[in-house]
UniProtKB/TrEMBL annotation:
Cofactor(s) demanded: [4Fe-4S] cluster
Domain Dihydroxy-acid/6-phosphogluconate dehydratase C-terminal: 412-605
Pathway involvement of the protein, from the record: Carbohydrate metabolism; Entner-Doudoroff pathway
Protein name: Phosphogluconate dehydratase
Residues where [4Fe-4S] cluster binds: 161, 228
Cofactor binding: number and manner: Binds 1 [4Fe-4S] cluster.
Superkingdom as given in the UniProt entry: Bacteria
Gene field: edd
Keywords noted in UniProt: 4Fe-4S, Carbohydrate metabolism, Gluconate utilization, Iron, Iron-sulfur, Lyase, Metal-binding
All residue ranges annotated as the Dihydroxy-acid/6-phosphogluconate dehydratase N-terminal domain in the record: 74-385
Length: 628
């Protein structure tokens, strides 16, 4: 790496500046609150003897003595471990390793709390998927409960998948006076090639493969502990955490159950202790994560062709740290960010192939040298991001970092900025008389990026499946699946529809999906306008559409329009779907309050409101009332 990084790209600098200015008041209030929390202390010294005795009653004598002394660090462990889900099963052994590493440094670690971790792969197309997005906010709240005991000098966040890491991040921001370390588990080893898996899924959708054939293929793909190997939301999470400096360098995609993974977990505990006040290098989350880190996460997401889910999650995550971003920020950055990765669904390789081709160290090197990310941000490693061009290795059993490759070892998977897969990033915003939404185009062929066709409306994804099986969709068609937003039913992913729409496209029809719901982080070759806001239940234009209307989706121009005049569209009655079946069963009735409070997609689709933004609005309202 050059000693002086290249100048920042003008667009990246401009977007960062606008985010900073847009967020100035709420960010100042956020920082003030975090500084105040820090001044109040960590902490154990604030607890009464009775409080403290409860806090370490279950500890061994050595840990009790350390906790009584008040001059050593105590780490709080928050984990999403469960042994049903492959991505989280490896986390079972992490707390013991973290505690042992802490004791070796004269400190302690306690398991502060567990958070739920659901798998969209299990719930895809099922009622449980309607709890998926809201689980992010439940995770944030569960983390807050775990850390509320005020026993900790830093927190280690153990999580991997779709809503888990964003939820942990939101909580880390609200406990921003504590240093934070995110500790991943790593991807499973490669299984059945993605191209073969997709082929068998489509054959099954056409009735040309049996359920036994499908299950065998799926089991050969998802086959062992670790994260799913395609580049969906889970692996996008890991990449973004590293882009923000919240992981150790090169730790995102090391397989579980290896000596290197165990060494990285132990080192994470040691480094977290160094980052505490007792450790001597106080690095709280709120001083580390600012608008520069958020911009880095967006650029990393775009350069890698990452998950559309993060056009929701990153907005909510940034808001938790007092930062306001919107979808236009994604679009502007996408225009100058080249596509550097081709990992399924954007290609046929998996995340292990990316790691072998040069991985995060090469991606960092390319983005830093091109001036596309802020390399000067503080990190949990105690350096700026230039250290993240290094890779971890074990030398005689000791963890060390060495400079990573300077060129890709497989140009079909990972490329440099000079010869990218595409000149722009993989996400763009759609705007028009049907509202605003997003589309992932990194896996959509150029020939399929503009679709104009009659629509067929569905208010349940199972109805689309039935229409496909009846042959009613064997034509040019845009499927509109509405009443799938957060207020309607929790905004489930509709990835179950991908094989059916993919078959229609392969038959030569012009096909697209328009929905106020979500697709998967594995959004693929069929153009899908998603997260349409305002949603149908919130008075959005989707509720005014009728079967046969002509809609034009133009991913190149960034437009989504129904061929009706503004007057004609406004004159139509808003339809209201039958939503009762979405609200009862499998615990969905417990989330009625969440559906009521849910914000729009571009606001993050969460239930917490705007944090400091809400407070500032109330203050301004009070000032106006006082003036009156």
């Amino acid at each position: 790496m050059p000693s002086t990084p290249p100048a920042l790209h003008p667009t990246v600098a401009d977007v960062t500046r606008r985010i900073r200015e847009r967020s100035a008041e709420r960010r100042a209030l956020y920082e003030s609150r975090m500084a105040d929390q820090h001044r109040r202390g960590v902490h154990r010294g604030e607890l009464s003897c009775g409080n403290l005795a409860h806090g370490f009653a279950a500890c061994g004598a050595e840990d009790k003595n350390s906790l009584k002394m008040m001059n050593s660090a105590n780490l709080g462990i928050i984990s999403s471990y469960n042994d049903m889900l492959s991505a989280h099963q490896p986390l079972e052994v992490f707390p013991a390793a973290i505690k042992e590493a802490a004791r070796a440094m004269g400190s302690t670690a306690q398991f502060a709390g567990g958070v739920p971790a659901m798998c969209d792969g299990v719930t895809q197309g099922q009622p449980g998927m309607e709890l998926s997005l809201f689980s992010r906010d439940v995770i944030a709240m569960a983390t807050a409960v775990g850390l509320s005991h005020n026993m900790f000098d830093a927190a280690l966040y153990l999580g991997v998948c779709d809503k888990i890491v964003p939820g942990l991040f939101i909580a880390a921001a609200r406990f921003g006076h504590l240093p934070a370390m995110f500790v991943p588990a790593g991807p499973m080893e490669s299984g059945l090639p993605n191209k073969e898996k997709a082929r068998i899924r489509q054959l099954y959708a056409e009735g040309k493969a049996s359920r036994e054939d499908l299950l065998e293929a799926e089991s050969a793909s998802y086959h062992s502990p670790g994260t799913c190997t395609f580049y969906g939301t889970a692996n996008s999470n890991q990449l973004m955490m590293e882009m923000m400096g919240l992981h150790l360098p090169g730790t995102s995609f090391v397989n579980p159950g290896t000596e290197l993974r165990e060494a990285l977990t132990r080192y994470a505990a040691e480094q977290a202790i160094r980052n505490t006040e007792p450790g001597g290098e106080y690095r709280p989350f709120y001083r580390q994560i600012d608008e520069r880190a958020i911009v880095n996460a967006i650029v990393g997401l775009l350069a890698s062709g990452g998950s559309t889910n993060h056009t929701l999650h990153l907005v909510a995550m940034a808001a938790a740290a007092g930062i306001t971003i919107d979808w236009d920020d994604f679009t502007e950055l996408s225009a100058v960010t080249p596509s550097l990765m081709q990992v399924y669904p954007n290609g046929q390789a998996d995340i292990n192939h990316f790691q072998a081709a040069g991985g995060m160290s090469l991606l960092f090197r390319e983005l830093i040298n091109a001036g596309l990310i802020h390399s000067d941000i503080p990190t949990v490693f105690g350096t700026d991001l230039t250290a993240y061009t290094q890779e971890p290795f074990l030398e005689d059993g000791k963890l060390t970092w060495r400079e990573g490759p300077t060129e890709s070892l497989d140009s079909e998977v990972l490329r440099g900025v000079a010869k990218p897969f595409a000149a722009t990033g993989g996400l763009t915003v759609l705007d028009g008389n049907l509202g605003r939404g997003v589309i992932k185009v990194s896996a959509v062929a150029e020939a399929h990026r503009v679709v104009e066709a009659p629509i067929q409306i569905f208010e349940d994804q199972n109805d689309l499946k039935a229409a496909f099986e009846a042959g009613d969709l064997d034509r040019d068609v845009i499927a509109v699946v509405r009443f799938q937003g957060p207020k309607a039913n929790g905004m489930p992913e509709l990835h179950k529809l991908t094989p059916y729409l993919g078959v229609l496209q392969d038959r030569g029809f012009k096909v697209a999906l328009v929905t106020d719901g979500r697709m998967s982080g594995a959004s693929g070759k069929v153009p899908a306008a998603i997260h349409i806001s305002p949603e149908a239940l919130d008075g959005g234009p989707l509720a005014r559409l009728r079967d046969g209307d002509i809609v034009r989706l133009d991913a190149n121009a960034g437009t989504l329009e129904v061929k009706l005049s503004a007057h004609a569209l406004a004159e139509r009655e808003l339809r209201v779907g039958d939503l009762d079946h979405y609200h009862v069963g499998l615990g969905r009735e417990l989330f009625g309050g969440f559906r009521h409070l849910a914000m729009r997609g571009e606001e993050g689709a969460g239930v917490f409101g705007g944090f400091e933004a809400d407070d500032l609005a109330r203050q301004e309202s009070q000032i106006h009332e006082d003036d009156a």
